[in-house]
Specification:
The chain is an alpha+beta fold. It has 6 helices and 6 strands. Strands 1, 2, 3, 4, 5 and 6 form a 6-stranded mixed sheet that branches. The longest helix has 33 residues.
Length: 228
């Protein structure tokens, strides 16, 4: 693995900060000019269209406690525990397609193969909260339409999760800690938005969930073919 020297890191960091400062200055001047033209306060965003974020809330019951599969960047000190999600791509793909790719790359191929991806079909959206994130250029809050799925898995499936990046860890958060200080604010809102769906969902016993998982894997195995 290539090693980056401290001098190189500082140089890149300074250049990046300088570049962002110039862009913010331009955005500020443009906003003032447009505001003068319209006679009222105007806001210019770097996003050329409305943003859509897709997110999945994986949850399971273990020892009578509802737990949630979430991720955390170990190199960030802020509250950054969050659900698996993705921003809608520019290639006109459905939001759940981008989400499926995010699940596979974030939680690992083994977990993905044990998952029924039809649970992420468009007609299974559990909630659609309006979220907000800081624009990467202007640092202004930007509205984002959220599309959230809630998927019950088994404790055994949760154990299959394996992060694909060194600075990422997958953690199981018990329900009583979901509104704690380490959870990212937007993801607290996501949790609250799907809570009614989860609690009103008839809880499937662990045995029934295992039977369903084994049946799904058996059907997947029977459909495999050897290509010569």
């Amino acid at each position: 693995m290539p090693h980056t020297s401290p001098e190189k890191t500082r140089t890149d960091s300074f250049a990046d900060l300088f570049y962002r400062g110039i862009i913010r200055l331009r955005a500020g001047i443009a906003e003032k000019l447009v505001s003068l033209l319209y006679g009222q306060k105007m806001y210019i965003a770097s996003q050329h269209k409305g943003a859509v974020a897709a997110c999945v809330v994986f949850w399971y019951i273990e020892d009578g406690i509802r737990k949630f599969v979430m991720t955390r960047h170990t190199d960030l000190k802020t509250a950054n525990i969050r659900f698996v999600g993705s921003m809608a791509s520019e290639d006109a793909q459905p939001a759940n397609n981008s989400l499926v790719r995010a699940i596979k790359t974030t939680l690992g191929d083994v977990f993905f193969k044990a998952l029924d991806v039809h649970l992420l079909d468009a007609d299974r959206i559990a909630a659609a909260p309006m979220l907000s994130f800081d624009d990467p250029i202007t640092k202004q809050p930007t509205p984002v339409q959220g599309l959230c799925w809630a998927v019950q898995i088994t404790a055994e499936q949760a154990q299959l999760c394996a992060p694909t990046r060194n600075n990422l860890e997958v953690i199981a958060v018990p329900e009583h800690a979901m509104l704690g200080p380490d959870i990212a604010p937007a993801h607290k809102l996501i949790y609250q938005s799907v809570l009614r769906h989860i609690h009103s969902h008839s809880v499937v016993s662990e045995g029934a969930m295992m039977d369903k998982l084994e049946d799904m894997l058996r059907r997947a195995g029977s459909s495999q073919r050897t290509i010569h």
